Structure formats: structure tokens, C-alpha cells
């Protein structure tokens, strides 16, 4: 009797989990499929190698190289800057430094709060600051705001992996007379390298896909930026603007832009998997 | 107990975790170039005593140490001039479970020497080989020194940890139940290596295996609930304990 009930429980739960997993995978595939079906016909060499020509937004010739290059500049710049700031912070949150202190708890808590702030708020915040100091929408402005957006994601993701480093591993290093810094740079960093790479990818994905934060801060332009102070186009905004036109062929280009964005993120994740596998060999479990 | 010249001299050592006392007024000398075993039931402070020698105990939170530990005439705790990293360099440490570093076999052994100085590649190669031979691992890994240390078996990893510890050129080897996570063959290997190493090194082993203490120890320290109950030459204590609690432990009444 009792045995039947337990088996039924087990089965019911399994069905629940399989359904949930199928729904997640299914909706992801659905998004891919829609973008692929609608976007692929509009993709051409011209689309990815040239900037918009006159009448582009009415269905004329040209491409969205401005947005591709712009997005890469923005996301790469922001991710690099965020990495430079996030790694020291995450390492400093170790037990060996400020660890379990009240300061560390406060830092973690505020990062979690900031994590949930909608990106349009970052955009508005950045915009106000830029108005105040008299800088117009530019690559620099976009990079700085995206950095703010990526920072909490990156720090918390790194913090979570760094916290999993076995204390004995650090103790082994200390026992040989290593200092905190030597232990952190030579042992901890090696141990968490795969996690650091995945934190970077996570943040990059968030950065390259965000539209709201760069709407006011990076602007939009049909030309390629020549300096950090020029406005710059981006793929999410290219999707947004093109989808907003009344012309079907321009709308289709929006899907093409979305497809390019997806492919970029996908390519990066695949590359990072390869990189991670290299570091993974050394990780102590 | 008299001895020629103790390598480590502990006087009135107290250790507290939070408010709770882990070691209570320990006074004992560790003989030079012998194997000293610290025995006692679990939770009696064996590991704490071991880690207080090289100040690794500092890593614990809310730890308070009073009393004196003297190593080669250096006051480890009370002399502000003494750098903990210097003290730690004098002592190699082996843990219960082997913890190789997340790098290649070669880099594991080279880790310590690289911290404490610069060597030419040739010299480093020689040094790595010397200590891998000493720990009895060389023949098994000589062709794959660039492989990740994580791929070695547990027994091999522990021998790698020994080589790594020796490469810092310590005078003392501290080992915290170094064979408890190993298979019998690997355990034997470690014990055998210790017997060879005591020619040149002072070795302190924490163990809960009485037979192991019987096999390898020259000197014995028996702790019970943070107190030093008895210490002296191993044979004397094992065959002829003076204290009631030592007798009970050796007979297996308390554990």
C-alpha cells in the first residue's frame, strides 16, 4: 500500500520536472525558430558589411554594420571595464579578507538589490549625469552605463564560485609560507578560472542584449563611431527601431538583426566553453 | 623527560575558539629528528596543537592563543618580529585529505620554491625531481609532469603533497592523519617515507590509529579533552602507561 503511494509520488514528481524542463527548452527553441525563420531571408552579405544607405529605413539599400560594430564596442568595452572592477571586489569578499564581516554582508546585499534594478533606470541615471557634466550620448556614455549594469551580475557570479574554494586548498598554500595575495592570485584564481569565465560571459550577454540603458546614453547613428565621444548604434536598438517602422521588409530586417545578436552571443558562449575546458582540467574537486 | 635539544618547545599553551577552550595549558617538547605522534580521541585538540606550531591556526576565526611556542629559539607567537610566513616555511604540512593545487604536477612541487626565490629552469627541474623521488612518486609521474595534479589517484596526490611540502626545504614535517583517506598500500608508502625522512627531519604526526603510532612513533603525546595527559618515549607509554586515562585509551575503553 504504502509502497504504491511512494512510487506514485516519485512518478508524479518526475512528470512535473520533465514538463518544466520541456517548457523551458521548448520556449527557447521557439524563440530561435521564429527569429531564424523571419530573419534568415533578410540576411545578406550587404546586411553585415555595410552601414545604412539613404532610405534604408524605408526599405532602401545598406546594412547594419553600424549596429554590429557598435554593439561589440559597447559590450566589449563594458565587459572589460566591469571585469577590471569586479574581480578585485569578488576576491576581496573572500573569508581571508573581509569575508564574513558586516561590510561584506552589506556589499553582497546591495549588489543583490542593484541586480534587480531595471535597466531603464540605469539609462535615466546615466543620462542625468551626462547632462550634468555636459556630455552627449556617446560610446563612452554607453560603455559606462553598461558597466554599471554588468558589475553586480559579474561580482555576484564570481563571488559564488570563489566561495566554493575549499579552505584546505588555501591552507595548503599558506602552509608553504605564501601570503594572502600570493594564495589568491596563484591558487584561488586558478581554481575559479572556469567560474570567472562564465561570469564574464553572463555579464557580456546581459550587456550586449540590453536596449533600455543605452537608449539615451549611447544614442543611435548610421555611421561608425570614430572616437569614444561619438554616438554609436547597437543591435538591440536596431531591432527596436526597425520593428517600429510600418514597412514589412524593414521589419524583417529587425529579425535579421536579432538573429545576428543571437549568433554573436551563441558564438561567444561556445568559445568560452572551449576556454573553460582548458582550465577545468586543473580544478581540484 | 630529558632530551638533547627539543626542536619545538611548547610552554603553557592555551587555545580558545570563541570562548571555548580547545587546548588547556599544554607544556611539551618535541624531540629533534624523531617521529612524534599526537594521539587521543577525536575532538581532543590534536589538530589544534599541530596547527599551533606553524600558526596555521591563525586562519580560524575568533581564535585566541596564549602561551609560548618556541621553534629553533624563535618565539612563534610573542615575538612581533617573527613573520608567520617564515615560520610556516620551516614546516611542511600534510592534511587528512590530499589537496593538490589546481595546476600541473610539476607546478605543484615548484610552487613553494617559486614563492621563496628564483631558480633557473635547470635547477628547478632538478629540485622537482629530487623531491618527487623523496616522496616516492617520481617513477609514476616522470613522463607526465605537465598533467594536472587532479588526475592523480588519492594516494599519489598525498605523495605529491609530501613532495610539495619538502620542496620548501622545511626542517619539520607536520602531518594531520595523513593516511586516513588513503588505501592501505598508499598509507604504507607514506609511513615508509616518514621512517626514511626522520634522519633529516623532525616529524609530528597526528593519528587516531594506535597501530600506526606503534609502528612509526619514537615519541608520544596523549591528549584528552584539550589536556595533555601523558607524553614520553612511545614504547614506554604504549607498554606501560602511567595515567589511568592513557591506559583506558590504549585498551580501547575510551575513544
Description of the structure:
The complex is a heterodimer of chains A (285) and B (255). Chain A is mainly alpha-helical and 285 residues long. Chain A is built from 11 helices and no strands. Chain A folds into 2 domains: 39 residues; 215 residues, Orthogonal Bundle (MetI-like fold), CATH 1.10.3720. In chain A, helix 3 packs across helix 6 and helix 10 packs antiparallel against helix 11. The longest helix of chain A has 38 residues. With 255 residues, chain B is of the alpha/beta class. Chain B has a domain of 70 residues. Chain B contains 10 helices and 10 strands. In chain B, strand 1 and strand 2 form a beta hairpin. At the A-B interface, helix 7 and helix 8 of A face helix 2, strand 6, helix 3 and helix 6 of B.
Query: What coarse outline of chain B follows from CA principal-axis ratios?
Result: globular
Order of helices and strands of chain B: EEEHEEHEHHHHEHEHEEHH
Count of beta strands of chain B = 10
Strand content of chain B: 25-35%
Q: Strands of the largest sheet of chain B, in order across it?
A: 6-7-8-3-9-10
Q: How many structural domains in the coordinates of chain A?
A: 2
Rg estimate of chain B, integer Å: 18 Å
Rounded mean pLDDT of chain B is 92
Secondary structure topology:
The complex is a heterodimer of chains A (285) and B (255).
Chain A: H1 2-39, H2 45-49, H3 65-92, H4 102-115, H5 119-133, H6 139-162, H7 167-175, H8 180-209, H9 212-215, H10 235-243, H11 248-280
Helix pairs in contact in A: 1-11, 3-6, 3-8, 3-10, 4-6, 5-6, 6-8, 7-8, 8-11, 10-11
Chain B: E1 6-17, E2 20-31, E3 35-39, H1 46-53, E4 63-71, E5 74-75, H2 84-89, E6 91-94, H3 105-116, H4 121-134, H5 138-141, H6 154-167, E7 172-176, H7 184-197, E8 202-206, H8 210-216, E9 219-224, E10 227-233, H9 234-239, H10 244-251
Parallel strand pairs in B: 3-8, 3-9, 6-7, 7-8
Antiparallel strand pairs in B: 1-2, 1-4, 4-5, 9-10
Amino acid at each position: 500500500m504504502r509502497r504504491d503511494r511512494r512510487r506514485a509520488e516519485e512518478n508524479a514528481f518526475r512528470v512535473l520536472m520533465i514538463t518544466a524542463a520541456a517548457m523551458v527548452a521548448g520556449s527557447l527553441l521557439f524563440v530561435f525558430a521564429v527569429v531564424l525563420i523571419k530573419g534568415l531571408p533578410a540576411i545578406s552579405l550587404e546586411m553585415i558589411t555595410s552601414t545604412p544607405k539613404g532610405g534604408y529605413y524605408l526599405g532602401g539599400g545598406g546594412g547594419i554594420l553600424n549596429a554590429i560594430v557598435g554593439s561589440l564596442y559597447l559590450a566589449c568595452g563594458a565587459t572589460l571595464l566591469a571585469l577590471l572592477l569586479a574581480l578585485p571586489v569578488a576576491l576581496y569578499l573572500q573569508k581571508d579578507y573581509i569575508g564574513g564581516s558586516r561590510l561584506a554582508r552589506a556589499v553582497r546585499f546591495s549588489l543583490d538589490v542593484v541586480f534587480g534594478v531595471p535597466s531603464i533606470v540605469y539609462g535615466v541615471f546615466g543620462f542625468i549625469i551626462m547632462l550634468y557634466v555636459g556630455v552627449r550620448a556617446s560610446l563612452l556614455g554607453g560603455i559606462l552605463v553598461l558597466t554599471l549594469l554588468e558589475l553586480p551580475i559579474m561580482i555576484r557570479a564570481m563571488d559564488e564560485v570563489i566561495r566554493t574554494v575549499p579552505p584546505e586548498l588555501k591552507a595548503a598554500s599558506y602552509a608553504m609560507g605564501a601570503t594572502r595575495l600570493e594564495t589568491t592570485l596563484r591558487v584561488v584564481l586558478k581554481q575559479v578560472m572556469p567560474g570567472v569565465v562564465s561570469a564574464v560571459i553572463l555579464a557580456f550577454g546581459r550587456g550586449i542584449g540590453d536596449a533600455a540603458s543605452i537608449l539615451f546614453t549611447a544614442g543611435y547613428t548610421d555611421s561608425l563611431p570614430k572616437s569614444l565621444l561619438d554616438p554609436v548604434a547597437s543591435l538591440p536598438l536596431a531591432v527596436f527601431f526597425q520593428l517600429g517602422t510600418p514597412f514589412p521588409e524593414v521589419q524583417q530586417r529587425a529579425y535579421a538583426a536579432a538573429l545576428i545578436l543571437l549568433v554573436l552571443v551563441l558564438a561567444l558562449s561556445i568559445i568560452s566553453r572551449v576556454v573553460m575546458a582548458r582550465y577545468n582540467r586543473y580544478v581540484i574537486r | 623527560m630529558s632530551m638533547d635539544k627539543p626542536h619545538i618547545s611548547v610552554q603553557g599553551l592555551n587555545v580558545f575558539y570563541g570562548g571555548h577552550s580547545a587546548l588547556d595549558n599544554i607544556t611539551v617538547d618535541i624531540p629533534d629528528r624523531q617521529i612524534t605522534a599526537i594521539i587521543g580521541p577525536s575532538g581532543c585538540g590534536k589538530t589544534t596543537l599541530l596547527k599551533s606550531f606553524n600558526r596555521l591556526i591563525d586562519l580560524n576565526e575568533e581564535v585566541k592563543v596564549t602561551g609560548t611556542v618556541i621553534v629553533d629559539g624563535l618565539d612563534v607567537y610573542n615575538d612581533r618580529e617573527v613573520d608567520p610566513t617564515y615560520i610556516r616555511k620551516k614546516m611542511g604540512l600534510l592534511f587528512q585529505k590530499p589537496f593538490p593545487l589546481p595546476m600541473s604536477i610539476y607546478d605543484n612541487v615548484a610552487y613553494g620554491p617559486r614563492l621563496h626565490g628564483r631558480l633557473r629552469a635547470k635547477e628547478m627541474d632538478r629540485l622537482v625531481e629530487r623531491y618527487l623521488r623523496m616522496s616516492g612518486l617520481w617513477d609514476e609521474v616522470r613522463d607526465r609532469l605537465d598533467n594536472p595534479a587532479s588526475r592523480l589517484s588519492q594516494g599519489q596526490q598525498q605523495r605529491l603533497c609530501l613532495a610539495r611540502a619538502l620542496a620548501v626545504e622545511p626542517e619539520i614535517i607536520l602531518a594531520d592523519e595523513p593516511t586516513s583517506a588513503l588505501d592501505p598500500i598508499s598509507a604504507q608508502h607514506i609511513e615508509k617515507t616518514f621512517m626514511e625522512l626522520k634522519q633529516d627531519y623532525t616529524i609530528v604526526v597526528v593519528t587516531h590509529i594506535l597501530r600506526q603510532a606503534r609502528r612509526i612513533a619514537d615519541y608520544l603525546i596523549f591528549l584528552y579533552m584539550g589536556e595533555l595527559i601523558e607524553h614520553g618515549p612511545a614504547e614506554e607509554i604504549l607498554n606501560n602507561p602511567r595515567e589511568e586515562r592513557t591506559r583506558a585509551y590504549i585498551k580501547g575503553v575510551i575513544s
